[in-house]
Amino acid sequence: xxxxxxxxxxxxxxxxxxxxxxxxxxxxxxxxxxxxxxxxxxxxxxxxxxxxxxxxxxxxxxxxxxxxxxxxxxxxxxxxxxxxxxxxxxxxxxxxxxxxxxxxxxxxxxxxxxxxxxxxxxxxxxxxxxxxxxxxxxxxxxxxxxxxxxxxxxxxxxxxxxxxxxxxxxxxxxxxxxxxxxxxxxxxxxxxxxxxxxxxxxxxxxxxxxxxxxxxxxxxxxxxxxxxxxxxxxxxxxxxxxxxxxxxxxxxxxxxxxxxxxxxxxxxxxxxxxxxxxxxxxxxxxxxxxxxxxxxxxxxxxxxxxxxxxxxxxxxxxxxxxxxxxxxxxxxxxxxxxxxxxxxxxxxxxxxxxxxxx
Amino acid sequence: xxxxxxxxxxxxxxxxxxxxxxxxxxxxxxxxxxxxxxxxxxxxxxxxxxxxxxxxxxxxxxxxxxxxxxxxxxxxxxxxxxxxxxxxxxxxxxxxxxxxxxxxxxxxxxxxxxxxxxxxxxxxxxxxxxxxxxxxxxxxxxxxxxxxxxxxxxxxxxxxxxxxxxxxxxxxxxxxxxxxxxxxxxxxxxxxxxxxxxxxxxxxxxxxxxxxxxxxxxxxxxxxxxxxxxxxxxxxxxxxxxxxxxxxxxxxxxxxxxxxxxxxxxxxx
Lengths: 358, 269
Hints:
The complex is a heterodimer. By secondary structure, chain A is of the alpha+beta class.
């Protein structure tokens, strides 16, 4: 990743609040034209990282480059990035138009050009008709659009979004996700979105940085994170997964899992014999009651303890004889449903087994 | 909500204890008789006499001037103090400053008045200012007391307000001074307005501090009332008291309304 192509470059950035390390040595390059998600549980430092980029917090150490310029200690008002607050932070004493105009006036715009830019920004979020309203007269979804318009009117190099979906209901969330993706394509700028929702990250982002305790623990495309999680935490956080403790078997090619009572076949290279590892298998890679192929991992005599119907899929919780509870998802419709209490066999191919060493 | 009989009776007794004297004064002010105990009929003649009394009118003018000036001074200083308390993180001696700011609220007025008198006299001897005491010294004295109230009201408002709007303004390209004038100030305006009104009322009502810090030509209304009462109560005083109660109630009601309208807190601190 070369320095010149990145819009935002963070080099070993650190920030502590009263001894608590909120951001602990983060290095990250946000490419121009990229939709990047910072994903993590609350308190992992993702919002602090966003505020460091915006200049609302000062880094204790490290460097922050924006559009190639060192802005580590620049105040927020000179940085060519804009932040959409989780609370939207609309100015309650100004109309929608004046809210959008505020940032443009700071750039010295006035007259026809100012009006044109306001109109353009409001049009992009489909709020043209509501310019005269006060923020308190708008619904939550409309307020979010105004907050968005206020940021993009400035034509920033990157738009920073702090938990943009947090205050929206489910139907609006899904629509807003698609709209944000479209908006980013039309504007051709980088979006950095902070979210605790892996679905937001997975559906919107080109790349996802998973954060924990102030550090980025894995950075990659959603598919990479889903198929090849680098750690137990990523596997658990990014989508659902069956996670078991195990140990490399004496033959060095399989992983012994006591809770399953078997040694798992896997396609990946394993560490030393007897070393402790974690294995992860996604629930949709596991089949119930098929005819196993020679390379498959298979367990007989399992019992379906619970069935959760989710529309297009159902999740089965299956208890195996050695005690593990395995989560399996199955398409509905194509296969006949299985009842609670039925006896099944459980099978998954060797390439579904992801081996994690941390 | 249904309150029991006994709590309700307690409430009535408590409120009666507070307000019966005031109500007696208000009712008496409309009594045609010169004697407080004898009702001879409804009349506004005492209001008429009051408005033809030069001494009282002059004192009322003094009081209004002092109240307006001291409220403005107190609001300016108190707003600055409130801003620093709420928005500027820990600095050396912050707790001490907070304590010092609260002191005028609990200090006996006699002490405040006496200490200010000593200060003015000493300052006059050392610097030649203030030359004698008058309107100016009362204004300064009242502002000293009232700025603490203003500071606490402004601080309460700022603390109840998230910083998001100010940060958003900075993020949108506004330098710090612009953030203050375009966003912070309009948002705390209700608190500033309420503080001004409270300071105005405090000044209008004050007798003790004004007595210590006034000069020969600067008698305020409470002082005029107090000295005239010593010569015997004229029903004019009742009329005047009624007007004062009405204007104070109006100011306080206005202050509360301005505060509540924007969802601020009524009680400072």
